[in-house]
Predict the structure of XRE family transcriptional regulator.
Amino acid sequence: MTSEPTPTWNEFAVTVGQRLLAARKEKGISQEKLARIANIATFTYQKLEKGIARPGAPLNPRLTTLIALCKALDLRVEDLLAGPWPDEIPSVERGN
């Protein structure tokens, strides 16, 4: 039996973005409308669909953002974040 390769964090973030895109298109709504429903900026949502925060930096969205989007899309969080998960999780550091 073969197992799925473990994705990098970047690959996983892109996969999550692809799942958001598919769910949004299935609902037949625009990025702008979904962002408005989820109470986030359209630009933020566009980055989520791409899976990148800025060139070379993978996305690391807040849990509240993911839950708001899942509610707006009638999507289960566990389906959005389904594995396989990356082995290496980036650290989240806050500036002083």
User: Anything to note?
Assistant: The CA atoms of residues 15 and 33 lie 22 Å apart. The chain has five helices and two strands. The chain has a mean pLDDT of 88.
